[in-house]
Every structure is written in C-alpha cells, then in structure tokens.
Design brief:
This protein has 520 residues and is mainly alpha-helical. The protein is built from 19 helices and no strands. Helix 1 packs across helix 4 and helix 3 runs antiparallel to helix 4.
Length: 520
C-alpha cells in the first residue's frame, strides 16, 4: 500500500474552484441526509435509555448495560474490521470500474462476518454463567448475556451492508440501515415494556428482534445499491490486501470498544451494579453531541478514498479543513448546552441518577476536545496509516485501564469518569501531533481561534445568566447569540454560500404545492 508523501500539499496542482465547490456540495448533501438520520437515531436512543432506566431501576439498568457492553465489545471481535474494509475497497474498486472486485469484497465480507459472529455468539452463550457469577457476581447477568449473544449475527450483517451503501455514496440507505431501522423498532418494544411492566429479559429480547430487522433492511438495500451482486458476474478478490487492512481495523475497533466499555466492566467488577448504572447514564448523555462529528466525517470518508486514490491532495486538504470547521461550529455549542443544563438533563433518568452530574461534565468536556479537533483517525485509516491509529488506541487503552484500576476503588463511578476523560485528552493531543507530522495540518487555524473565542464569550455569558433568568430564556439567548456571532465572524464565504443554497432548497421544498388527485 502506498503512503502519503510527508508534505502532500506540494504534490498536487491546484484544482479548479468549480471542481472543489462540486465536492463541497456533494459533502453538504450527504451531510444533510446524515444529520436528519443521526439526530433521529440519537433521539430514539435517548428515549430508549430513559425508558430502560426508569423501568429497570438503577441496578437492573446496570445489569442491562453490562450485557449490552459485553455484546458490543464482542461484535468488534466478530466483525474483524470488515465493515471498514468494505467501505474502503468498495469505494476504491467502484472508482476504478472493477465491479467483479466490488462483488467479491462484499460476498467474502458477509460470509466471514456471519461465520465469525455465530462462533463468537455460541462461545458467549456457553461461558455466560461463569462470567456472570465469577467475574461480576450477578446471577441475572447470565441470561441477559445469552439473549444479547443472539443479536450478534444480525448486528454484523447490518454493519457490513450499511458500510457498503456508504462506499457507493448512498448516505440515505446507510443512514436507514445503521441509524434508524434498529433503534426505531427497539423504541416501540421498549415503550411497550415500560407500559406493560416487562423486565430485563424482555428488554434484551427486544434488542435481538430490532437488530434482525435492521439486517433485513441492509440485505434488501444491496439490490438498489449494487444490482450486479445478484447477477452472474463472477466475484474476484485480493485476499491478502483485504485481510491485512481488515485485521488492522478489527484491532482498532476492538481496542476502541475496550476503551469505551472497560470502565463499565471494571466498575461491575470493582464497585457493583449501582456504580455501573451511574456511569452508564453519564456516558449515554455525554456521547450524543459527539455524533455531530460523524455527521460530517461519514460522508467525508468515501470522498477521502476517492481523492487519495486520485492523488488529489489539495482537495483532500481543503475538504478536511472544511469538515473540521463545520464540526467545531456545531460540536462546541452542543457540549456547552450539556454543561449549562446538566441538572435538568440528568434528571431525565430519575432522581436515583443525580450523582451522575459531575461525571457528565467531566466526560462531556473531554469528548468536546476530542471531536472538535477534526476526524484525524478517519484520515489515518482511509489513507493507509491505520497502524498509527492502532498504536494510539493501544496507548490510550493502557492509560485508561491503569487509571481506572487505581481510581475506581477510591471514587467509584466518578473515578471511572476521570480515568477515561484524562485518556481522551491524551488521545486528542496525540492525533493533533500526528496530523501535523503526516499531513502538515496545523492544530489551529485562524477560523478555529475565532470560533474558540466566540464560544468562550457566549457560554461565559450563559453561566452568568444562570441565576437570573429561566432555563428556557437562557437556552434561547445563548443559542441565538452563538448562531449570530458564528454566522458573522466564524464561517467562510464558501460556508455562507452553501448555507444559502441549503436554505433555498429547503424553502422551495416546503413551499411546493400539494397535488390533490382528481375526483371521479
């Protein structure tokens, strides 16, 4: 695999402004679709977590999260990085017109994914009684783990088919598969559980059914995205290249899930289910603003592959800077509101979870720094430097585990919050340095500094307003002030033009008259 030159900006003749604008418009279109789907997904997931927390109470909610986190961790093992391999090589071979390699990549990825997930699920079902008793001292966890294990094959199929749609720039279908279908159906089941008084097994079983539904949606989408899959076209494949890439991405995914889920598992072992429930509530609330970075990064990823394959480093650099700027503009106020209204937000989970407020602030601030710096890890992975990303995660995991083992026995869920927050900040610093070393992308730019100053002024004013106005008036005032100052001083002329185009299209869509069919 070829590597990126140390200073890619000198390797490319400047592309025309028209072409760059076309790339930005395609990014904006994919982003707008992904925004709608992801916002809906996060709202659905938040409603699901609130229903579960209120119905299962703090200990039951903790056991549920132990089972769910174990399943998510094991899906990283079963997936083997095949979703990212499908994303990269699907886009790569599609751009080259090598349809037989597109088909071969998808077929092999689905077969390997299903076989490995069935094997991992069977192993989890067998060992779950021992894990529940000997590791977590929670007998109810055994049946929960066994039910969640049944979801693994369906979860894997949905991930691979969603990534395949993304590789063909079909962000709409990717969003429907990965962001909407599963949580949408699951919310219906969880709401029924809440009103019918169902228990822990009902919640886990409902997840399995909703995961199966998303897998069906994913398989059905292949016909629309790539009809040649069902033709007599013979699939071909570069085995070594695919396995080398997918196994590296698999290790990255496993390490990331260990990093994200290890605090809950450590808490279950060292502090009990109640502390797991507190930390899980705070982590659930702290993570939604981070999805905003994915809103911009996900449509960007297949474009990265295309531009890198074309050796068009100038457009790649410009696109990266645009994505980072857009991410910062939206991520910072999202976390700002999270901190400003932490008391009201935590109470969504009930009075039992009020001690999660401090953990929420700690995690929220750390994730804000990580996401606001830009999609460095995606850039590393999509340009063949996945080993660097792997080394980052390995170092961060070791740091977080070491801090957690020392801090959790002393401070419980709060200690877990501090351990993972410090690790996230170290991770952010490492990626900023690597972006400069490998791609000559500076950690700060003129627009980012302007946005940092604006955010500090606006949310500083918000803190001063807290004791003098209602929460609704404070939210409206802070939001309006940030939007106005950002539009005036924080965006580029190109950003304003894209925004005007988007508003115009939306206005025309909403103003379109409804055609009433003629009556006989």
């Amino acid at each position: 695999m070829t590597s990126v030159p140390s200073n890619p900006l000198v390797c490319e003749t400047p592309a025309s402004g028209t072409r760059l604008q076309a790339v930005l418009r395609r990014l904006a279109k994919g982003t707008s679709i992904y925004i709608l789907g992801t916002v809906l997904s996060k709202l659905l997931l938040l409603a699901i977590q609130i229903f579960l927390a209120r119905q299962l109470r703090i200990s039951g909610y903790g056991v549920y999260n132990l089972g769910f986190n174990t399943m998510i961790l094991l899906q990283s093992v079963a997936l083997m990085g095949l979703d990212q391999a499908v994303l990269r090589y699907g886009a790569l071979y599609r751009g080259r017109g090598q349809l037989e390699f597109v088909k071969g990549t998808l077929v092999v990825s689905l077969v390997l994914g299903v076989v490995s997930s069935v094997m991992v699920a069977a192993a989890l079902i067998l060992v779950s009684p021992h894990v529940a008793i000997r590791v977590f001292s929670e007998p109810k966890l055994a049946s929960t783990l066994q039910i969640f294990a049944l979801a693994l094959p369906f979860y894997i199929v949905a991930r691979i088919t969603g990534a395949f749609a993304q590789s063909h720039h079909d962000i709409l279908r990717m969003t429907a598969i990965q962001q909407v279908s599963q949580p949408g159906l699951y919310l219906v089941f969880v709401a029924a559980l809440f009103y019918a008084g169902g228990g822990l097994r009902w919640a886990a079983g409902a997840f399995v059914v909703s995961a199966a539904f998303s897998a069906v949606v994913g398989v059905h989408s292949i016909r629309a995205v790539f009809p040649e899959f069902f033709s007599s076209l013979r699939g071909r494949l570069h085995w070594r290249e695919l396995l080398r890439y997918s196994l590296a991405l698999s290790a990255i995914a496993i390490l990331y899930q260990l990093f994200w889920r290890a605090p809950s598992l450590l808490l279950g072992h060292l502090a009990g289910a109640r502390e797991v429930g507190l930390f899980s509530a705070a982590a659930t609330l702290a993570s939604p603003p981070g999805f905003i970075s994915l809103i911009f990064a996900q449509p960007f990823m297949p474009m990265m592959v295309d531009l890198y394959e074309q050796r068009n480093f100038r457009e790649l650099d410009m696109l990266y800077r645009t994505v980072t700027r857009w991410t910062y503009i939206v991520v910072v106020p999202s976390f700002g509101f999270l901190v400003l209204f932490r008391k009201q937000i935590v109470l969504l989970f009930g009075q039992d979870f009020k001690d999660a407020e401090g953990i929420l602030v700690t995690l929220g601030m750390a994730w804000m720094v990580y996401y606001a710096k830009g999609p460095v890890s995606a850039l590393l992975d999509m340009t063949g430097r996945q080993v660097v990303d792997l080394a980052n995660l390995a170092g961060v995991l070791v740091l977080s585990l070491g801090l957690g083992v020392w801090w959790i026995p002393r401070a419980g869920a709060a200690g877990a919050g501090w351990a993972i927050s410090i690790s996230i900040l170290a991770w952010s610093l490492a990626e900023l340095v690597e972006a400069w070393i490998f791609f000559r992308i500076p950690p700060l730019s003129k627009h980012l500094v302007q946005l940092m100053v604006l955010a500090a002024l606006v949310f500083g004013a918000g803190f001063l307003m807290q004791d003098h106005v209602s929460a609704a008036a404070e939210a409206a005032g802070v939001g309006a002030l940030y939007a106005a100052l950002t539009f005036l001083f924080g965006v580029t002329p190109a950003d304003r033009e894209l925004l005007r185009r988007g508003i115009k299209k939306l206005t025309l869509l909403l103003a379109r008259p409804v055609v009433v069919p003629a009556q006989d």
